Amino acid sequence: MAKVEIYTKLMCGFCFRAKKLLEMKKVPYEEYAVDFGGAKKDEMIERAGGRMTVPQVFINGRHIGGCDELMDLEYRGKLDKMLAA
């Protein structure tokens, strides 16, 4: 199964939706909270090409984007293939 990483904030509805989709698919993920900035937020911004919004999702080190992009992959039937790799 793929390695999934997600940068989140506690009170973020989009983060909740992205995590819920992964949980429904029974996909384990590493979650990094960036509520208070710091090194993890800096890491997220660098890895996400300057994006500062959350969530930011990575599958096997590849930047997927945010919740909308994750949901779009699911809608187009491409997410399962990425997660199986």
What report would you give on this structure?
- This protein has 85 residues and is an alpha+beta fold.
- The mean pLDDT is 97.
- The protein is globular and about 35 Å long.
- The chain is 42% helix and 20% strand.
- Helix 1 (13-24) packs parallel to helix 3.
- It has one domain (4-84): Glutaredoxin, CATH 3.40.30.10.
- The protein has four helices and four strands; from the N terminus they run βαβαββαα.
- Strands 2-1-3-4 form a four-stranded mixed beta sheet.
Quick tags:
85 residues, alpha+beta, Glutaredoxin, four-stranded mixed sheet, 4 helices, 20% strand, globular
Summarize the structure.
The protein has 85 residues and is of the alpha+beta class. It has helices spanning 13-24, 39-47, 67-75, 79-84; strands at residues 4-8, 30-33, 56-59, 62-65.
Helices and strands in order:
Layout: E1 4-8, H1 13-24, E2 30-33, H2 39-47, E3 56-59, E4 62-65, H3 67-75, H4 79-84
Parallel strand pairs: 1-2
Antiparallel strand pairs: 1-3, 3-4
Number of separate structural domains: 1
Total beta strands? 4
Describe the largest sheet.
Answer: 4 strands, mixed
Give the strand line-up of the largest sheet.
Answer: 2-1-3-4
What is the CATH H-level superfamily? Answer: Glutaredoxin
Q: What string gives the helices and strands in order?
A: EHEHEEHH
Global geometry? globular
Per CATH, the class reads Alpha Beta
CATH-defined fold name: Glutaredoxin
